[in-house]
Amino acid sequence: MNERWLLSRRNFLRTLVGTGVIAASDLNWWDAPLISPRRAWGAEPVHFQFSVPEPTRITLVTSLVERFNQSQKDFAVEVEFVPQAQARQKLISAISSGSPPDLCQIWDNWLGQFQGMGALEDLTARVKSWKHQPDVQPTAWQTVTVGNAIVSLPLSVTLDAIFYRTDRLKEYGLKEPTPDWTWDDFLALAQGFTKADKNQYGYGMRGAGTWAVLYPSEFAYANGAEVLKDGKVVINSKEGVDALAWYMDLALKHHVTPPSAATDGFVEIVETFGRGVTNMYQHNSGSVGQQKKNVGADKFATLPVPIGPAKKRASFYFSETLTGFKNARNKEGAWQFMSFMLEDEPSLMYCKTLGLLPARKSILDQPDFKDDPALAGFRNSFPFTIVSPYLAYAGWGGKLDSDGVPLMQQAIVGKISPKECLDKFADILTKNMS
Amino acid sequence: MSSVQVALGSRRARPLLSLRARTLLTGYAYLVPAALCLLATVAVPIGKAIQMSLYADVLFKPQDYRFIGLGNYIYLVEDPVFWLSLWNSFVWVFGSVVLQFVVGFAAALLLHQAFAGRTLLRTLLLLPWVIPGVVVGLIWEWLYQPNYGVINDLLINAGLLHDRVAWLSNPDLAMAAVVFTNVWRGIPFFAIMLLAGLQAVPDELYEAARIDGAGVWARFWHVTLPLMRPIIVVATATRIIWTFNYADLIFVMTSGGPANATQITSTYTLMQAYANLDFGYAAALSVVLLLVMLAFTAAYLRITKGVEEAQ
Questions:
Q1: Do A301 and A322 sit in the same domain of this protein?
Q2: Is residue B103, in this structure, part of any structural domain at all?
Q3: pTM, rounded to two decimals
Q4: A173, A132 Cβ separation under 8 angstroms
Q5: Model ipTM?
Q6: In angstroms, how far apart are the furthest CA atoms of chain A?
Q7: How many interface pairs between A and B have CB atoms less than 8 angstroms apart?
């Protein structure tokens, strides 16, 4: 047989295999709706870093990215999923080496530090001419504004409320709490819910991660305390100390928290509630979806944080952001994808699937959010939300984790008094007001 | 013939270097690529870390970047968390390595005996070492979980515990809990290294000792241990350095908490770099860590060499 023919047949077979592989890898195109012609081969890549707290987001974001890539032909978003614990470290390394992704998904409490590094792209001009700009909640714009520059688009917003078990409430014959409940009501409910012999506790206190500082701070605001007043750190005021003492007594005096409270982070507080170990916990709406699966939608409800002795209460408002970088290679592609994610359908799908609240008012008013009883506590919290006071200085971001959390842990286990804890914390904040 | 050779020889240029020098230089020339690689991957980063430690280098304050001399080191001396983390590092390192060595040696002696299923047991013993550190941390974190962890359940069901114990949340227990996990993970390292050493000890020495009337303990003390000394020195020194720098397990299990009870210098360095973005201070911590380890290794090797010479 002719040698040239043999070679040609081999090439033919290779081509056949290659075509098969391309076709197989391309099959998922048929599953998604065709919005517009497929993108051109020359579409510019857009590198997107997404930090993944849980697997649902991987599927969801992959699907949304796919939709964006099909909806236009100029840009192809390539998403990189990074575990949340490594996301910050990876971004810092990428920024320092001058090769950040084109955009990333991060929480607003990192923005100050990144802006301080001179890493963020100023989106103010783009945002001002963006069609949905007036529809985004003003507080959400506050959270993504550093100095006078808007540096991100708020993908979703979060505020804290109290989750509680409605089935256990009936089981133990406890009084149904109302949205205007007080600290005393909260404590009475936590005590009623605590059955240590059954390994059940009233309140899943958080002792690890940034929110180990933020949750007691919200209680401090309910007692009339503030973090910053007239340019001075005043968290260690009498009101602040009294509030922290009351909060720590939940663990030290009333024993309504699980013994693991000092190191319980996000996963633990959500998991212990889901497994029926705790009957209340404080969190944002991000764990609503998980509790619907774990506990059942009819067995839990949410309430705003309780009113304190100062007849006040506060829920800290945060944004999950899409943020672009100054040294990005494809700024236009990044902006196109960011704004796509805040369009009606992607925004609705993203927030509804994850139990988050959309930043756009018109979407928040849709039945998926307005009529979901599990979100009632969060909707009722909007009137008293405030932007987290810890966003005031870039230097505070890391100090909450490196110094604030260990101080709170020492207070939870009773190694230091609430006053000592807050005096030291105030000192650290004062030294890092930059 | 010889006159021709002499004539040719006199025309040949005299070599610039002697044969010995050329041989020596050729040898060094072969080392140059490896030396350059070492320089680029070891010396340059260390030099860069030392340089960084002399600067105020907080990433989100680029306008404040400046030379501050020993400023970071002075701050370090006054930082109580650094001293606590250094003490914790010693507890973590020596607690882990001593127990790993003792249990690992016992396992190696056991596995050196002939018995049915020895090969299977040797393979199983390697499992904790094969699992990545982060996964080990996650597994043990859930085992220790006070509310629904297996350890508490087993102890309560066995009647050994009455109340649930918060192993990782109690500052008095947390370090012991993470050390125990590290011991579990590190036993295979010592077992395999020491088993290799045991297999190299000639059987004739044991025969001779037995004939001389030496019992089990005497054979272990006077035959096994002296012959195993080089491998013990290398294995423990390697493991000590390794454990000193090993942050994964603590980072995953406790993040240095509760209340810095498990904060070791390497996790504290990581936190300064990636939570506070204070790379200058983190570099100073790294340099101190390097000096501590250098001093320790030098002292350890000197002492063990001294012991060997005395033998």
A1: no
A2: yes
A3: 0.79
A4: no
A5: 0.75
A6: 97
A7: 110
